[in-house]
Amino acid sequence: MTATTGPTVLEPHGPRPIRGTEPSRGTFVRDTLVVFRRAMRISLRNPVWSIMGLLQPVLYLSLFGPLLEPLAPALGAANAYQLFVPGLLVQLGMFGALFVGFGLIAEWRDGVIESERVTPAPRSALVLGRVLRDVLVILVQGVVLVATAFLFGLDAPLGGIALGIVSAALLGAAFASLSYAVALNLKSEDALAPLLNGIALPLLLLSGILLPITAASAPSWLNNLSDVNPLKHIVSGIRAEFAGDITSSTALWGYGLTVVLVGLGLWFGTRTFRNEDG
């Protein structure tokens, strides 16, 4: 199986399997890597989107972060950036992945998706290959963001930082899968943009990415509403990791919710690609 430069991404390599049968592990890995390499080449040829995705949290870090330094003791932190950078990582993981569906719509319009559908490649490989590209991009962006934060005075254990970056990248996998699934259902940029913005804005506002939302800092109704948002607990988990509490209940809740979101996202994305065969 090879990647091509035209619309056809995967070459058929045998009779198409009956829908619902399980592919061999070798075929799944090979097809996933083919899709990943093609998606990665597209990103490297046009890196503007990745650069702009990193620019927003860096601007928050440089223009808003210094304002939090005098507030750090009141927020229960010795270092303001231990609170702020985890929120920016979640923002990076979310916005760095939530809008990748626009590229999929362009691929659908160019006939790439139709070409992939007639191959025996597992539908999960078509999703996972693209998601792995998005995860790798977010990992690189996360490293650059944290390195920049050190210049501003971030003080956190390296192990906690590494776990925080990985958590943000996995969160990106969940949102990328969701974006691909929604894009494939809508097949319209005009419909996708307002829908994704309508999802992203309340999730971010209720996650406490800029300032922690607690019973002491927010009205009870706002605190209770934010408790329903899984992103709030993931942000809190990454903040615990940056503080070195990688085995605390807060951090464990963050790990668990991240894994659940990734599983749900990949399931939804794979299911949508399979439904396209119908």
Compose a concise summary of this entry.
The protein has 278 residues and is mostly helical.
Record the SSE blueprint.
Layout: H1 25-45, H2 48-63, H3 65-68, H4 80-98, H5 101-110, H6 112-117, H7 123-152, H8 158-186, H9 189-205, H10 220-227, H11 230-242, H12 249-275
Largest sheet composition: none
Estimate the strand proportion: under 5%
Shape assignment: elongated
Reading the helices and strands in chain order gives HHHHHHHHHHHH
Alpha plus pi helix count:
12
Spatial extent as radius of gyration: 20 Å
Determine the N-to-C terminus distance: 25 Å
Structural class by SSE content: mainly alpha
Rounded mean pLDDT is 85
Word description of this protein:
The chain is mainly alpha-helical and 278 residues long. The protein is built from twelve helices and no strands. The protein has helices spanning 25-45, 48-63, 65-68, 80-98, 101-110, 112-117, 123-152, 158-186, 189-205, 220-227, 230-242, 249-275. The radius of gyration is 20 Å and the shape is elongated. Mean pLDDT is 85; it is low at 1-9 and 11-22.
Structural descriptors:
mainly alpha; 12 helices; elongated; disordered N terminus
